[in-house]
Amino acid sequence: MGCGLSKAHSNPEVLVSHGSARLTVHGRRLIVQRHQAGWPQAHIAAAMGVSRKCVKTWIDRYAAEGEAGLVTRSSRPHSIPTGSSEQVEQKVLAVRAAHRDGPDVLGPKVGCRPGRCHGSCAATVCPTCATATRHR
């Protein structure tokens, strides 16, 4: 639950903790302070309502990066190696503009999965794509 190690993105984003987030920066700092005071990790986890793995993650990040390791990070991937090529995306957009079909019809026409067609159209904001998804 948000405790996996990930690299910070080079693009700065505005990150806001969601309402059900168990730990904020303040809570992560409290984990580190309790660890420095000699608390066992299992006791810190029980007091904070998180797993021991999560406690260890924040302690390790703090040891490696200092205060910067406690900052909220984006979980968005750095890259999508299996993403559609520019050529496929252009083909999907051209067919969608011409026929105004949804992903289920576009997929077989273009030769890719419907989800891939939807992703290509959703990534490109164009009036044709937006109106084609509405009920007629």
From TrEMBL:
Residues covered by the Insertion element IS150 protein InsJ-like helix-turn-helix domain: 28-78
InterPro entries per UniProt: Homeodomain-like_sf, InsJ-like_HTH, WH-like_DNA-bd_sf
Signal peptide positions (record): none
Name of this chain's protein: Insertion element IS150 protein InsJ-like helix-turn-helix domain-containing protein
